[in-house]
Amino acid sequence: MTAPLSQIYASVVHMLVAAAEATPDAEALVEGQTRLTYRDYVACVAAFAAELAAHGVRGERVATILPNSIDACIAAFGILAAGAQHVPLNPLYTPREIGEILSDAAARVLIAADDAASALAPLAESAGIGTLIALGPRARSLSTLRASAVPLERLPDPDALALLQYTGGTTGRAKGVNLSHRAIATNVAQREGLLPTEAGERILCVMPLFHAYAMAMGLFLAANCRGSLVVLPRYEPEKLLEAIGEERITVFPGSPTIFVGLMAHPRFARTSWSRVHTCYSGAAPLAEPVLRRWEAAVGTPILEGYGQTEAGPVLSFNPLHGVRKPGSVGIPVAATEIEIVDVETGARVLPPGERGEIRARGPQIMQGYRNLPLETSEALRGGWLYTGDIGELDADGYLTIRDRKKDMVIVGGYNVYPREVEEVLFAHPAVMEAAALGAPDEYKGEIVRAYVVLKPGAHASEEELLVHCRANLAKYKVPSSIERLEAIPKTSVNKTDRQALRGRASRGGL
User: Fold this and answer.
1) What distance in Å separates the CA atoms of residue 191 and residue 222, rounded to the nearest whole number?
2) What pLDDT was estimated at residue 37?
3) Of 45, 244, 428, 440, which is the most buried if we count CB atoms within 10 A?
């Protein structure tokens, strides 16, 4: 089962230009008191593209290290319009991580927030970057270019590289994913087939814009539906809940961490969600109890999907119109095939109901990893992207993610998927957040350790939680111990930081 394919633009820049031609006076970008129409938006993009072109970026790479802002939106489109490949980087990366990525990317220009520019200058110089452009209140804002009359010189070649998005970067070497203009524009249309939007949607963007999820489900989605992208600089529950009403939000892309945090906030119950008709969840697995609590409290569905940076990034979603299956990440987007294959060889296709590695193929898949031919050959085999995720398909073609292949725990020869343990812990009425992972054990090889955050005012002892697990899990899957934390450590994109938890466990943090 797949969805129909919506209109495909040659690139997302073509998409933005079409929006400006059709609705020039419609509100396009909002950040605080700053508001830009689509006419303004394209004028800013065209002027900045011309500025970048003067630095000889066509066919080269331009890196950005920017927080969420209107400047980040204009810069992203401006880079693509200039014929360069955009390299969006996480502002929370350490100097070591940034330096390694900048060297690998061989960018010609670096665009950074003004408060970080001076610290980044030596890294840029070391990486051979000749131009550093600072943006922000102490430097300049790209929104002032709205009065420019500079035309777009030419629109991008659909088959040229558009994005170089680095995955990871906190452990080992970050891998740069090469995506073409055609791939990312096609993926927008694919997503639209399952999640149709109306002209003039008002989309709240709190997810970080350097991340593939925020680009696909915020930046590009807004241009495609000619809607308003309301940009929040960072996740602050009070301001987010305030914006829901004041900005008349209709579409809210979030993450499991955000949904859990909002429901725990005192203002949540007083917030009117009447205009919000759709919420999306991505970037990390969403526990089924969280989904059900949210929908009961808000009256708005959370549509959970699945993807990877390497996949443009969207591979599947629960459809807006059609059957939604809680706990599932839905059906493949249009023109996309998903199969489950055996973990050992990746060659044997498994029947519905059996767990194995997820592989996918479609027009949105990456061209490969930059400067990593071996890793590319391992990920792309026979036209398929091997995701490294463990999942299963049901008889209706709905995909359920069970875990990361690398996170699978082998306890006494039995495979244990931490996601299943987390789901059981989430089902306990006192648990707000949960995380599970493997730890070395001399006798069993590995054991499962778990961490929980309790709901405000709730009480549950470790033994009570273990009893709950014993009643719902096979003996070998039950955690050896469960530790209560004030908060589960998170990465900058709100995923559980398993590396931090492993470090805690290795230091005897249980």
Assistant:
1) 13
2) 98
3) 45
